[in-house]
Design goal:
Helix content: 40-55%
Number of strands: 7
GO molecular function: undecaprenyl-phosphate 4-deoxy-4-formamido-L-arabinose transferase activity
Strand content: 5-15%
Radius of gyration: 26 Å
Shape: elongated
Order of helices and strands: EHEHEHEHEHEHHEHHH
Largest sheet: 7 strands, mixed
Distance between the termini: 26 Å
Structural class: alpha/beta
Keywords: Cell membrane, Glycosyltransferase, Lipopolysaccharide biosynthesis, Membrane, Transferase, Transmembrane, Transmembrane helix
Pfam families: Glycos_transf_2 (PF00535)
Protein name: Glycosyltransferase
InterPro entries: Glyco_trans_2-like, Glycosyltransferase_2, Nucleotide-diphossugar_trans
CATH superfamily of the largest domain: Spore Coat Polysaccharide Biosynthesis Protein SpsA, Chain A
Number of helices: 10
Length: about 325
């Protein structure tokens, strides 16, 4: 099969018939073999009934329904597990992503050896309350991830080589960072394509400001797990030792100063009367705690069933 189109959705009953018909026209016009996987993320409207009706007349459509709303990341993860196409295309169900972009995205994956091609909505039809935070979010993500050639990490329209979606796990708010997950999994040929963005035609946006807070915390999680997931002692131990050493040397300095003052017969302050002593004590305690945290995390990591699971590309 050439293409799997994975579409997570929540309360999009009006747009589904138009979207699936649009995809069908594009696929038929380019003679692609394909499947459309609609993942209903616990919709409260009649979206699932619409999916059942579409399935009865369109054999390439399959549907997955969650019992409740789990979020876009969960919907994508389930869709990725079900996808069988050589190239997996993701898009939103609100008709703001154009299926006409699919052939070019497919060609970029197949002909340029790209692992992932992310859409860039260079001209957006979103309110400033969404576009300004999005630009800030993308800037922070570029700097933290080292993927400097992407302008829009959160664009729903993306194309993946099949190996990519089978090698990553998407959860929480991680759908915003799939390029980062792919990079940590060893898929470094990440490209970008300018895509058309359309105004929302039906329904209301599911965007909320709280998502940026959760998204930023998930970015920190990705950064930490990707870099230190199999060696947590390198992170906690390094910071812990530095903190302990700083506190220890401050304490030594205070003791030395007191002994020097006694030897010279000059007035001195008790060590416990100096604020610097308590700062050094806190640094020593924090350093010890961080070191022990790293030690415990290392024990947990070494006893994990996934401690020696690695993504192997080829064997000859």
């Amino acid at each position: 099969m050439d293409i799997s189109v994975v579409i997570p959705l929540y309360n999009e009953e009006e747009s589904l018939p138009e979207l699936t018909e649009w995809i069908r026209r594009v696929m038929t016009g380019h003679d692609f073999s394909y499947e459309i996987i609609l993942v209903d993320d616990g919709s409260k409207d009649t979206s699932w009934k619409v999916i059942e009706e579409l399935k009865s007349t369109h054999e390439q459509i399959s549907g997955i329904r969650f019992r409740r709303n789990y979020g876009k990341s969960a919907a994508l993860n389930v869709g990725f597990n079900a996808a069988q196409g050589d190239v997996v295309i993701t898009m939103d169900a609100d008709l703001q992503d154009s299926p006409d972009e699919i052939p070019e995205l497919y060609n970029r994956i197949m002909n340029s050896n790209a692992d992932l091609v992310s859409g860039w909505k260079q001209k957006r039809y979103d309110p400033l309350t969404k576009t300004i935070p999005t630009k800030l979010f993308n800037s922070v993500t570029r700097n933290m991830s080292g993927i400097h050639n992407l302008h829009d990490f959160n664009c729903g329209l993306k194309a993946y080589r099949k190996d990519v979606v089978k090698s990553i796990e998407v959860y929480g708010e991680m759908h915003r960072y799939i390029p980062v997950l792919a990079k940590w999994a060893g898929f470094t040929n990440i490209q970008e394509q300018i895509v058309q963005h359309y105004p929302r035609k039906y329904g209301t946006t599911k965007f909320g400001p709280g998502r940026f807070v959760k998204g930023f915390l998930d970015l920190l999680s990705i950064f930490f797990v990707g870099k230190f997931g199999k060696r947590p002692m390198h992170f906690f131990g390094t910071i812990g030792v530095l903190s302990f050493v700083v506190g220890f040397f401050i304490t030594c300095y205070l003791v030395f100063e007191k002994l020097r003052s006694i030897a010279e017969g000059t007035v001195y302050r008790n060590i416990t009367d100096q604020p610097l002593f308590y700062l050094s004590l806190v640094a020593i305690l924090i350093g010890t705690q961080l070191f022990l945290t790293g030690f415990i995390a290392e024990l947990v990591s070494r006893n994990s069933s996934e401690r020696n699971q690695y993504h192997i590309e080829k064997i000859i």
